[in-house]
């Protein structure tokens, strides 16, 4: 059966090694190993980015940067559609209609909102609360069957499914019920400074995160300063939640080896020599992506044409869905 695979990425902040090894790489593999009948749609969700305050100039830059990094990392635009969410107005349009279908009680259960609003306190906007509804619109507009996301987004995909079910029940069959596709085997890279936490765009300590556009010197410096376990050399009995384990994961994912292979290769190395190996592997992994990234950014015409094609494809598809929705809900005029 034909699959439609949709996922979104926020253009806020710098993309980092955790994004590459945990999300972008698995997507690239998914696209490259998929049969041709499937559709892949990757959306740069700039409307979602505004759930926290944004610098307008920087956001515009990040939208292009993020799109170019996806292509540079190997998303093949002949096999996948890449577009910018705000360029297709159907997303925010359908989000409003879903606002009117979704019970408030469902929304109050969203754990990510609870965590984020607790941190943002007075700064919390209605947009942050509504964020999963816009995400449901993103997904459901395209008859998406599979949504590859991290564990933290599973509840949002399930909400999209519930909204689709409720809509179908109320107005008749309209939306396909999507499934979250959680890459259990995807690398989960932790902060270099705090291995209890995910590597993250919003981390305060810049030494914790390797950004995809960092120079080799920056990468080496950050990995040299990474937190280790309490010993002096890599041991087979490393702490599975500790800094050494995280560096082993980074090495394995950067070289395409399994963790067991990485352990076999690197145990008994002193921490200093071990970190040099890890840094070397990361630099080697990022170099071709960075080179390709620069080529793409120096050829704006190429990037624009891919984003134009992505936009046209998305509008063509979502427009038909919106027509069905309007008819079922009785809004606008007939014909
Ligand atoms: N909420 C997702 C995140 O922060 C991004 C996103 C927006 C998304 N719309 C989506 C992911 C649709 C998958 C499908 O990671």
Description:
By secondary structure, this protein is mostly helical. It folds into two domains: 4-182 and 299-329, Rossmann fold; 216-294, Tyrosyl-Transfer RNA Synthetase (Orthogonal Bundle). The chain has 13 helices and five strands. The protein has helices at 17-33, 46-49, 56-72, 90-99, 104-107, 111-120, 126-140, 154-171, 216-224, 243-255, 259-266, 271-297, 300-329; strands at 4-9, 39-44, 80-84, 146-149, 179-182. The protein has a three-stranded parallel sheet with strand order 1-2-3. Strands 4-5 form a two-stranded parallel sheet. β4 (146-149), α8 (154-171) and β5 form a beta-alpha-beta unit. α4 packs across α7 (126-140) and α7 crosses α8. The chain is globular, with a radius of gyration of 21 Å. The mean pLDDT is 95. Bound molecules: tryptophan.
CATH architecture of the largest domain: 3-Layer(aba) Sandwich
Class inferred from helices and paired strands: mainly alpha
Would you give the CATH topology of the largest domain? Rossmann fold
Overall number of structural domains:
2
Shape: globular
Topology:
Elements: E1 4-9, H1 17-33, E2 39-44, H2 46-49, H3 56-72, E3 80-84, H4 90-99, H5 104-107, H6 111-120, H7 126-140, E4 146-149, H8 154-171, E5 179-182, H9 216-224, H10 243-255, H11 259-266, H12 271-297, H13 300-329
Parallel strand pairs: 1-2, 2-3, 4-5
Helix pairs in contact: 3-12, 4-7, 7-8, 9-12, 10-11, 10-12
Bound molecules: tryptophan (TRP).
């Amino acid at each position: 059966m034909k699959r439609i695979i949709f996922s979104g990425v926020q253009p806020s902040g710098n993309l980092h090694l955790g994004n590459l090894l945990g999300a972008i790489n698995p997507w690239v593999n998914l696209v490259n190993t998929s049969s041709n009948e499937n559709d892949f749609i990757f959306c740069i969700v700039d409307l979602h980015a505004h759930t926290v305050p944004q610098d307008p100039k920087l956001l515009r830059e990040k939208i292009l940067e993020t799109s170019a990094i996806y292509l540079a990392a190997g998303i093949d635009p002949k096999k996948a559609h890449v577009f910018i969410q705000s360029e297709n107005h159907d997303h925010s349009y359908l989000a409003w209609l879903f606002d009117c279908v979704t019970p408030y009680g469902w929304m109050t259960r969203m754990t990510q909102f609870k965590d984020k609003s607790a941190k943002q306190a007075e700064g919390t906007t209605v947009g942050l609360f509504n964020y999963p509804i816009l995400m449901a619109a993103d997904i459901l507009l395209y008859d998406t069957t599979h949504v590859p996301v991290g564990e933290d987004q599973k509840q949002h995909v399930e909400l999209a499914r519930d909204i689709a079910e409720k809509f179908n029940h109320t107005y008749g069959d309209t939306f396909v019920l999507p499934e979250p596709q959680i890459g259990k085997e995807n690398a989960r890279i932790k902060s270099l400074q705090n291995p209890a936490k995910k590597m993250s765009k919003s981390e305060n300590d810049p030494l914790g995160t390797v950004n995809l556009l960092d120079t080799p010197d920056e990468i080496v410096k950050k990995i040299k300063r990474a937190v280790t376990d309490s010993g002096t050399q890599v041991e087979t009995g490393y702490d599975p939640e500790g800094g050494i384990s995280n560096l082993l994961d980074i090495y394995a994912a950067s070289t395409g080896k399994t963790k067991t292979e990485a352990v076999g290769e690197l145990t008994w190395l002193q921490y200093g020599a071990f970190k040099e190996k890890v840094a070397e592997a990361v630099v080697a992994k990022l170099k071709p992506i960075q080179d390709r990234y620069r080529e793409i950014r120096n050829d704006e015409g190429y990037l624009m044409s891919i984003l134009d094609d992505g936009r046209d494809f998305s509008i063509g598809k979502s427009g038909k869905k919106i027509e069905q929705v309007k008819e079922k809900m009785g809004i606008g005029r007939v014909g």
